[in-house]
Each structure stands twice: as C-alpha cells, then as structure tokens.
C-alpha cells in the first residue's frame, strides 16, 4: 500500500522515470538494391557496406554537384561482388563521395585496398541511372575479402575449371580461414559443394583402342 502511494506521489510530482525508446538498429541496405532502384532512394539516407578500392583522380560528374573541386570520389566493391573473379575485380560497382577537407576525406586517404566500411550517406542525385551519394559517416569493419582470400579463391576457380577438385577444395579451405562478409563466405561454400560433387563423381575411364 505504501509503495503504491509513493508511486502515485512520484507521478504527480513528475519524479517518475520516463520510458525512453531504445535506438533502432541501423538497417543496412545491399548496394545492389540501391543501384537497381536509385530513384526510390533519392533524397533518403542509406547505410551500405562496401570494400574500399581507391580514390580515382578523375570522374565524369556531369550535371551533378559532385565535381572534383568540392568532392573526392571513393570507389569500392559491393558486398555482392566477388573480387576473385577477374571481371568483378576490375569493375567495382560502388562509388560514393566525400567533401574535401573533412575527416571523412582523411579516413579514406588513409584506407588500404580491400578495407571494408559501413558507410552512411544521402542519395543526393540520380544521374545515368546511378545513385550519387554524399557520405555522412564511415565505420571500419573487421571482416573483408582480403588479398590472401582473393588469391586462394581465384586459384580454386581455375582448378575447378580444370576439374582438379581436390586441389580446388584445399584452396577454398585456405580462402575461408579469414573473417569475411556473409555473401563471400556463402559463395565460397557453394564452390566447395561443387568440389565435393566432383570428388564424389570420378571421371569415366578413358576408352582404350583394341589391340
């Protein structure tokens, strides 16, 4: 009874604790979704995860605000890309922009190739069916598709094409040692399943000519 009375007094006097909403978890959008429907995200804030490649010296800004006088371009691989595939290694899909003279510019100037980031930015414009995103923040992540993983995985792909499945599987085991994003790990696991099927199905014996 006394506890209930004290609670009522606390409410009347404004002393009762106020329930606070917990921060909502950040929704990470796959880059492919933003790239596939850029107009849907125009003017919105998006969070994506990308793997840094470089800072290109030149790009065609066209009618956008993202000219080299005020911005630095950041080129990166999307999580859905597998850089052990030559065409994907040479064609990183993601391009975002940071203002010159900011901490974000210094962050990417010091970044190493293959370093992975969770970046948050606003889709300021859509031009040539591409989202033009101005970054607001970038957080380094621990997992990445590193150089060693790329070397082992690309070797495994070559060995699979040669039907050397046991050697390919060993290369994939080595590729999977490092922490990496889920899409890359799932793809390497799929390749291991291909190897397992190849190992379980020995090639037919060669047909020998009659003596």
Question: Which tags fit this structure?
Answer:
alpha+beta, five-stranded antiparallel sheet, 36% helix
Helices and strands in order, then pairings?
Layout: H1 2-12, H2 31-36, H3 38-41, E1 45-54, E2 71-78, H4 86-89, E3 94-99, H5 103-109, E4 116-127, E5 130-140, H6 147-161, H7 165-175, H8 182-200
Antiparallel strand pairs: 1-2, 1-4, 2-3, 4-5
Unreliable spans are: none
> How would you state the average pLDDT, rounded?
89
Helix fraction, binned, reads 25-40%
- Secondary structure category: alpha+beta
**How far is the N terminus from the C terminus?**
106 Å
Order of helices and strands: HHHEEHEHEEHHH
| Residue share in β-strands | 15-25%
Number of helices: 8
Shape: elongated
Q: How many DSSP E strands?
A: 5
Cross-sheet strand order for the largest sheet: 3-2-1-4-5
As a whole number of angstroms, the C-alpha radius of gyration is: 25 Å
Main sheet makeup: 5 strands, antiparallel
Any overview of this molecule?
By secondary structure, the chain is of the alpha+beta class. 36% of the residues lie in helices and 22% in strands. It has helices at 2-12, 31-36, 38-41, 86-89, 103-109, 147-161, 165-175, 182-200; strands spanning 45-54, 71-78, 94-99, 116-127, 130-140. A 5-stranded antiparallel β-sheet has the order 3-2-1-4-5. β4 and β5 form a beta hairpin. α6 runs antiparallel to α7 (165-175). The longest helix is centred in the last third of the chain and has 19 residues, at 182-200. The radius of gyration is 25 Å and the shape is elongated. The N and C termini lie far apart (106 Å). The relative contact order is 0.13.
